[in-house]
């Protein structure tokens, strides 16, 4: 039960937080040591001959710390002030050790093959402890735990296969992002639990004040980060991790300049997660098909800006490349496929096996389209000139697929439409890119303004839903239909123009 926030209690929680932060900062300073000299052996002045082993020791320490998190919740003897304080201290040390092992190894030339195996193993153990504890004593859903475990089993088997073939099996960028998302979400879920009966840090009050739907959104975010992170271990999904890196050199601009296009890429990813959140049947929302469509349209708008901004600001980075390549598959592939399945199940009012098939069919064709796009992009010698697309681009395909749900409820008509859209994405049709479309009169003066008008009307209608009167609410669906027509018309003409550009070239 949440305790009342008296002045003395707040002061005690703040002091506890300060003590934990002080322990973490002192530990980091001691472990990293002084600035390394360019001459002489790579030997830490404090650890001496054990310098090479320190990254592995930091990995080993995370195993008992992860187990302690579970023990604090499982055993009643730790349901007190001491147990609660050590829980937060253990989690803080887990995070700082996870950050320091790699940094220490690079600084003191202590990188080893054992460390490359130990680091992900320690991450998996901590995630296992946090997830099981959150399921038993928190509000974690069973399907989150299933996805986390399935991902770890698949990645472990694939790592073993890669090592047998002599290929690189080290952790990818996406794996590091996944670990951060998992730790954050699972920790927040644990903070909301009343099992310990006492609050010792102020962030517990903040976590418990968060609405339950926000926690559900966080769990969906965790699942998406978990699923996407496993794709780079498969050769057919190699574009998810490294294709954009080959296009441009790493930028030397300031970090805040480099982050500007990355913010749009992150926005794309979060919009896809939000679209799936509103497609969940347990989320109470009016006009669900239109709301899901709006968030995918918002993701497509973010996708349209990140690349041009990166080129305009000369702010390319490996981190941005990783985000951009994975986000397209996540939002316009995985998220849209998930929405398709959930909408089919809602129409049938039960789990739809046809919906599973159509969702998988759509996702496979998005994957094939992105893989081919990568190859064509690498073959382009002039990277400064934006190529047109071979096949319908995945953002347009995702929007087109979800537009079908705003017009039809018949699953057979929906299935035929989504299959056609999927085939269009992997077709040989010549579709104009958005960078080149702005210079074409038809797009510049008619189709783009029409699509933007529909999107802007969506924004107004989506965010004013809670404030409309019951009389206006009855007519709101008709306004959403108008918005859908404003968007579907440019998409339909875009497809027709693709046929014209392919078969009526002069």
Task: Briefly summarize what is shown.
With 506 residues, the protein is mainly α.
Which parts are unreliable, with pLDDT below 50 for 5 consecutive residues or more? 243-247
For the termini, the CA-CA separation is: 74 Å
* Rg estimate, integer Å: 25 Å
Q: Secondary-structure element sequence?
A: HHHHHHHHHHHHHEHHEHHH
Backbone structural class: mainly alpha
Number of strands: 2
- How do the strands line up in the largest sheet? 1-2
Explained architecture:
By secondary structure, this protein is mainly alpha-helical. The chain has two domains: 7-35 and 42-232, Up-down Bundle (Four Helix Bundle (Hemerythrin (Met), subunit A)), CATH 1.20.120; 235-503, no CATH class. The chain contains 18 helices and two strands. It has helices at 7-32, 54-74, 81-107, 113-137, 142-164, 173-191, 203-209, 212-230, 239-242, 255-279, 288-313, 318-348, 353-379, 394-403, 411-425, 434-437, 441-464, 470-503, and strands at residues 389-390, 430-431. It has a two-stranded antiparallel sheet with strand order 1-2. Helix 8 crosses helix 10 (255-279) and helix 14 (394-403) runs antiparallel to helix 15 (411-425). The longest helix has 34 residues, at 470-503. The termini are far apart. The model is unreliable at 243-247 (pLDDT under 50).
What's the topology here?
Layout: H1 7-32, H2 54-74, H3 81-107, H4 113-137, H5 142-164, H6 173-191, H7 203-209, H8 212-230, H9 239-242, H10 255-279, H11 288-313, H12 318-348, H13 353-379, E1 389-390, H14 394-403, H15 411-425, E2 430-431, H16 434-437, H17 441-464, H18 470-503
Antiparallel strand pairs: 1-2
